[in-house]
Specification:
Chain lengths: 317, 472
C-alpha cells in the first residue's frame, strides 16, 4: 500500500486522498443522519436510562423478551445504517466515475475542434507547399482561420497544442520548421515555464517533451534540473532529453542521484544512436565521480571506442 | 442459548458480506487511481523504442497445443507477428490425436531438427523437434511430444529453448502486437527488485473483429454467457488484480498469458505436472521460493488488455472450466497452507492468502450455507421478510455497483468497447448477471468441491474452439 501511495506522487496523492476522505466523511455524515432519523439513539437511550429497563426488571422473563425485541430492532436499524452508508459511499464513487465519464464524452466535442485545427494546420503548410496532401489522403483542406476563442480558451488551446505536436512529430523539413514557428508565434513557449514549475508531474513531463520537440533552448537548463525529479517518469524523460539537448550528451550523469534502470540505459543508447558521430563525447572523462552502474559504463565505453558496427550489449541477466 | 447461536451465525454472514463488499470498494479506489496513473505514464513511455533493440532480455514464447487442428495454423501465424526482437516461438504438440502436427509440418515447411535441451525439468518423452526450411519462420521451433497435459508441455518448451524470460500463452489467444514489449517494460524499469513474473489483462475475443491473425476491434458478444464473462474478466483483471499488484500481492497470473524469469522458474521446478490449477500453483511457488530465500522480488502486472481469448459459449464447457478452476484453487490453498497467516510470507501470507481463501475458495460454501440458513428461517417462521428484502436489495445494489464501476473504469481508460451501445449492452448484462448467472457459478463451484474430494482423474475438460471470425 505504501509503495502504491509512494508511486502516485505527492500532489496527485493529496488529490486522491482528499477524494477518498470526502467520500468517507459524506457517508459517515449520512449514516449519522440516518441513525438519528430512525431513532436508533432514542432506543439506546431508553435502554440505558429508562427506569423501565433497570437490572432487576431485566431479570424477569418478560423483560428479557422485551429487551431482546428492542435489541433486535436496534441491530436491524444499525444494519440499515451501515448499509445506507456503504450505498452512499459507492454512489459517491460512482458519481466521481460518471464525472470522468462526462469528461470523456466531452472528447467528442474535442474531436470536432481537433478536426478544425488539423484543417487549419494543414492549410498553413499547404500554403507554402503542396506536399501536405499526403498527410490526410482524400481530404481536401479548406481554408480555416483561428478565432479568439481558439487561441484564448484553455481547453481549445490544449487541443490545438496537441494537434500541433502530433503533426510536428509526423513531418520533416521545412514543414516541420513552419509548425515550430506556429508554436512560438502562438505563445505556447511562454506557458512552458509554468509547466516546468507545476506540481502535476504530467505537466512537467509534457514540458520536457515540448522543449525537446520544438528545441526551446531557453529551457534546456530546466530540463537538466529535472533529471533528479522525485517522479521517476519525469526524471527518466529529462535524462533522455538531456542526451539530445546538451553539447555534452552525457553531462547529466554527473548530477543524477539515482541508480539507472535498464530502461534508462536502453533509452540513452537509443538516443545516442540518433546523434551525429562528431557530437559524441570523450566518454572516459565524463564518467568519473558518479553513481552510474559500472556495467553500463563499461558498455558505453565499448560503444564509443568500438566501430559503429559493434552493437553494445547492455543487458546483464 | 440456541437463539444466541443463530444470531452469531447471522452476524458472521453479515461480517463476511461487509468484508467482501468493503474489499471491493477498496479495490475499486486503488484500481481507479492506479489505472489513472498507468494511463498518464503510458503517454510518456514509448515502448516503440524497444522495437528494434537487440539489447533486450531474450524472450521465448511457448504455446502448448493439444488437438488444436481447427486453429493451429492461424494461431501460429498470429503469434509469429508479435513485436519483439529475435523472439523465439516454441509450439509444443502435446500428443494431439488429431492432425495438429501434420498441419504444422505442411503449413510451415517443417523438417526434423535436433535440439539439445538447455534445462532439465522432468517431462514426458519428446518424440521429435522441428524447424522450418522457410527462413521467414526461422524463429519457429515445434516440438512433438507424448501427451502429458499442459504443464508438461510447457516444461518441454522451457527445456528446449534458452531465454531470460519465458512467455507462456494459450494457443488460441490473439496477442496485441506490442504485448511482449509492454510486458518486458517492468523488467527494464525495475531498479533493485528482481521481476520474476509479469501478467496482464486478458480480454474475451468472442465476436470481436480479427483480421489476418490480428486483433482489430473489440465487440460485445451476441450471446449472454460470453457477455457475462466479459464483465467477470473486467472485474477480476481491472479491479482485483490491478489493486493486488499495488501491494505485490498477486497470487495468480492468468494461464492465458504470463511471462516468467528463467532462473526462478527453473529453481521452482517449472510448472507442476500434477497441478490442476498450474498457473496459480506456479505463482504461489515463486512467491514461496523468493520469500524463503529472501530475494527482493516483485511480480509485474500490466493493467492493459494484452491478449484476447475465446471464452466458453456453452454451459457445459463453462461448467467444466469453473469446476477445474475451483478444484485448482482448493488444491493450491491446501498445498500452500503453510503460508496461511504466516508472517514469514509477508503480505502474501497475512493478506492475499487469507483473502483468496475467504473470497475465492470458501465463497460457494458460505453462500450455500447462507441460503440454508434462509430456508431454516422460513421453515421455523423466524424470517423477517422486510429485513430480508432490504438485505437482498442491498446485496444486489452492491453487486451491480461493483460491475458498473468496473465497466466504467475500463471504459474510461481503454479504447475497447468504446461505443455507447457496447456500454449499454454491458450495463444491461450486469443487471441480469446476479440473477441468471451467479446461481450457476455457485453450483459449478460446489460441484468443483464435490469432484475434488470424491472424484478422480477428471483431467482438463474439453474446450471446443470455433475459431475466430474475421472481418471481410
Amino acid at each position: 500500500m505504501y509503495k502504491f501511495l509512494h508511486n502516485v506522487n505527492k500532489s496527485s496523492l493529496k488529490h486522491h486522498l482528499s477524494d477518498l476522505l470526502v467520500c468517507c466523511v459524506a457517508s459517515l455524515i449520512l449514516a449519522t443522519l440516518v441513525y438519528e432519523c430512525i431513532g436508533l439513539n432514542k432506543i439506546q437511550a431508553a435502554l440505558n436510562h429508562s427506569p423501565m429497563v433497570d437490572l432487576s426488571m431485566i431479570t424477569s422473563e418478560l423483560n428479557i423478551s422485551k429487551h431482546l425485541e428492542k435489541s433486535n430492532s436496534m441491530s436491524r436499524r444499525l444494519l440499515i445504517s451501515i448499509g445506507l452508508s456503504i450505498i452512499v459511499l459507492v454512489t459517491i464513487f460512482s458519481f466521481s466515475l460518471a464525472h470522468n465519464f462526462i469528461i470523456k464524452k466531452g472528447s467528442e466535442q474535442r474531436k470536432k475542434v481537433a478536426n478544425k485545427y488539423q484543417d487549419y494546420l494543414s492549410h498553413i503548410i499547404s500554403e507554402s507547399n503542396n506536399n501536405f496532401q499526403n498527410y490526410k489522403s482524400g481530404r481536401r483542406s479548406e481554408k480555416v482561420s483561428l478565432t479568439k476563442d481558439d487561441i484564448y480558451n484553455v481547453n481549445n488551446r490544449a487541443v490545438l497544442l496537441s494537434e500541433l505536436k502530433g503533426m510536428h512529430s509526423l513531418i520533416a523539413g521545412n514543414d516541420k520548421t513552419r509548425l515550430s514557428d506556429i508554436y512560438f508565434s502562438l505563445g505556447f513557449v511562454e506557458e512552458l515555464s509554468e509547466k516546468f514549475k507545476s506540481t502535476e508531474w504530467t505537466l512537467r513531463a509534457e514540458a520536457i517533451t515540448e522543449t525537446l520537440q520544438f528545441k526551446v533552448q531557453q529551457y534546456y537548463n530546466l530540463v537538466n534540473k529535472l533529471v533528479n525529479d522525485h517522479n521517476l517518469t519525469v526524471s527518466q524523460n529529462a535524462l533522455v532529453a538531456s542526451v539530445s539537448i546538451n553539447k555534452e550528451p552525457l553531462a547529466a550523469f554527473r548530477k543524477i542521484n539515482r541508480k539507472l534502470s535498464q530502461w534508462d540505459q536502453h533509452c540513452i543508447i537509443d538516443e545516442l544512436k540518433k546523434l551525429p558521430r562528431h557530437k559524441l563525447p570523450r566518454f572516459d572523462k565524463i564518467v568519473l565521480d558518479n553513481t552510474i552502474n559500472q556495467e553500463f559504463i563499461n558498455e558505453l565505453q565499448q560503444y564509443f571506442h568500438n566501430s559503429e558496427n559493434t552493437q553494445p550489449k547492455l543487458y546483464v541477466a | 442459548m440456541f437463539e444466541f447461536n443463530i444470531h452469531t451465525i447471522e452476524y458472521g454472514f453479515l461480517a463476511y458480506a461487509c468484508l467482501i463488499f468493503g474489499s471491493y470498494i477498496l479495490q475499486g479506489f486503488i484500481s481507479f487511481y492506479s489505472l489513472k496513473s498507468f494511463t498518464a505514464k503510458k503517454k510518456f513511455i514509448d515502448e516503440g523504442r524497444l522495437l528494434d533493440s537487440d539489447i533486450l532480455p531474450t524472450v521465448a514464447l511457448i504455446a502448448p497445443a493439444y488437438n488444436e487442428s481447427a486453429v493451429i495454423v492461424q494461431s501460429v501465424r498470429s503469434l509469429l507477428t508479435a513485436h519483439y526482437f529475435d523472439l523465439e516461438l516454441v509450439i509444443v504438440n502435446d500428443g494431439s490425436s488429431d492432425d495438429t502436427m501434420q498441419k504444422l509440418i505442411d503449413n510451415f515447411s517443417l523438417i526434423p531438427s535436433e535440439t539439445r535441451p538447455y534445462n532439465n525439468l522432468s517431462t514426458k518423452k519428446v518424440i521429435n523437434t522441428y524447424r522450418s526450411k522457410n527462413s521467414a519462420f526461422k524463429n519457429l521451433l515445434v516440438i512433438d511430444k507424448e501427451n502429458g497435459r499442459k504443464a508438461d508441455a510447457i516444461n518441454v518448451g522451457i527445456n528446449h529453448s534458452w531465454a531470460d524470460y519465458y512467455a507462456v500463452i494459450d494457443l488460441d489467444c490473439i496477442l496485441e502486437p506490442n504485448a511482449l514489449l509492454m510486458m518486458v517494460e517492468p523488467v527494464l524499469q525495475s531498479q533493485d527488485k528482481k521481476v520474476v513474473a509479469v501478467g496482464g489483462v486478458i480480454g474475451a475475443a468472442n465476436d470481436c473483429t480479427i483480421k489476418h491473425g490480428k486483433f482489430i476491434e473489440a465487440k460485445v458478444p451476441k450471446k449472454i454467457l460470453p457477455r457475462i464473462q466479459i464483465i467477470e474478466y473486467i472485474r477480476s483483471f481491472i479491479l482485483g488484480r490491478t489493486a493486488w499488484n499495488q501491494v505485490n500481492g498477486l497470487l495468480l497470473i492468468s494461464g492465458a498469458l504470463g511471462m516468467f524469469e528463467r532462473e526462478t522458474l527453473i529453481a521452482v521446478g517449472g510448472y507442476s505436472h500434477d497441478a490442476i490449477g498450474e498457473d496459480m500453483d506456479l505463482v504461489m511457488k515463486m512467491h514461496k521460493h523468493c520469500l524463503e530465500n529472501k530475494i527482493d522480488y516483485k511480480i509485474g502486472y500490466i493493467p492493459y488488455p494484452l491478449c484476447w481469448t475465446e471464452v466458453p459459449e456453452s454451459k457445459t464447457i463453462l461448467s467444466s472450466q469453473r469446476n477445474r478452476w475451483m478444484r485448482g484453487t482448493i488444491e493450491c490453498m491446501y498445498k500452500f497452507r503453510g503460508m496461511f497467516l504466516n508472517p514469514k510470507y509477508g503480505i502474501i501470507g497475512m493478506v492475499s492468502y487469507p483473502f483468496w481463501l475467504l473470497t475465492e475458495m470458501l465463497a460457494p460454501v458460505i453462500e450455500f450455507l447462507g441460503m440454508g440458513l434462509i430456508v431454516y428461517f422460513i421453515v421455523t417462521g423466524q424470517l423477517n421478510l422486510g429485513l430480508a428484502l432490504i438485505l437482498l436489495f442491498f446485496i444486489y445494489f452492491l453487486t451491480l455497483s461493483h460491475s458498473f464501476i468496473a465497466i466504467m473504469i475500463y471504459y474510461l481508460n481503454f479504447d475497447k468497447y468504446n461505443s455507447r451501445s457496447d456500454l449499454i449492452k454491458l450495463f444491461k448484462t450486469a443487471t441480469v448477471e446476479a440473477i441468471y448467472y451467479h446461481p450457476k457459478v455457485l453450483y459449478w463451484g460446489l460441484r468443483g468441491y464435490y469432484d475434488y474430494f470424491f472424484s478422480k482423474n477428471l483431467g482438463w475438460g474439453k474446450m471446443t474452439r470455433k475459431g475466430f471470425s474475421t472481418s471481410p
